[in-house]
Amino acid sequence: MKGSMNVLKRNNVEVVGHGGPVLLYAHGFGCNREMWSHILPAFAHTHRQVIFDYVGSGHSDRSAFDPMRYADLRGYARDVLEICDALGLTEEVTFVGHSVSCSIGMLASIKRPELFDRLILVGPSPSFLNDPPSYMGGFEREDLEGLLSLLDQNYMGWAQYLAPVVAGASGGDAVASTLNASFCSTDPAVARVFARATFFADNRADLHRVPVPSLLLQHRNDNLAPLGVGEYMNAHMPQSTLQILDVEGHCAHLSNPALVIEAMRQYMTPAEAFA
């Protein structure tokens, strides 16, 4: 019991609602659990919803941050599984992840397939690096190294540069401001480790191992994950469904939450989504 409470405090876990199927939301790099605030009300009366912060993000216990554990996305997948264990969840969890959390959710489902019913992945990318001719993730290695170099040299400048790139035209100033504030509130030492784990991960070899149905919500114009990334994932995942959202940016759950809500409802069973 004490261990469970420690995990819930460590990851700043909150459970919204008391009955119904479970929706577990996982935020992206530099973000926090509040990024799902536009989605939660839509399922308030039908689902038990779980939001949390990865260790080092948001209002998690930053003293628990282990740079060795969190240098690899499997460390974040352990957070997901430990949260489920602490809450006594053993099956029928719908994992809703954004950006790098899409890969984290895939890893968690491979590790514990019996725990998850499905994955709903917003802006997924198994690798941000180009690997021509078969895969174009959007970035050359030197581009990403330059981005991380800027993070090291001028963290605030890095945040101000990256926020509008991630927000995109659909997000506008409001989403860019939200992202910038979240980036700036993250400890630079933590951001450095999470950024390298995020942008240099390559989980393409894991795609065929994902054991549960997965909805891929790809943005039509996304500076971080081109359309070809979603098409590649859909071609290599055994139980995937690709849906293109008419969104310019990388954060539809912030910029166009109604589109994400509708996609989630259509993907889940009518009885579950509208009860």
Shape: globular
Mean pLDDT: 93
Number of helices: 10
Into which percent range does the helicity of residues fall? 40-55%
Q: Count structural domains.
A: 1
Q: Provide the CATH topology.
A: Rossmann fold
Query: What is the distance, rounded to the nearest whole angstrom, between the alpha carbons of the first and last residues?
Result: 33 Å
Backbone structural class:
alpha/beta
Structural write-up:
The protein is an alpha/beta fold and 275 residues long. It has one domain: Rossmann fold, CATH 3.40.50.1820. The chain has ten helices and seven strands. The chain has a seven-stranded mixed β-sheet with strand order 1-3-2-4-5-6-7, with helices on both faces. The relative contact order is 0.16.
Briefly, what is this?
This protein has a single domain, classed as Rossmann fold (3-Layer(aba) Sandwich). The protein contains ten helices and seven strands. It has helices spanning 2-10, 73-86, 100-111, 141-153, 155-185, 188-199, 227-236, 252-255, 257-267, 270-274; strands at 14-16, 22-26, 48-51, 93-98, 116-122, 214-221, 240-248.
Describe how the helices and strands are arranged:
Elements: H1 2-10, E1 14-16, E2 22-26, E3 48-51, H2 73-86, E4 93-98, H3 100-111, E5 116-122, H4 141-153, H5 155-185, H6 188-199, E6 214-221, H7 227-236, E7 240-248, H8 252-255, H9 257-267, H10 270-274
Parallel strand pairs: 2-3, 2-4, 4-5, 5-6, 6-7
Antiparallel strand pairs: 1-3
Helix pairs in contact: 1-2, 2-3, 4-5, 4-6
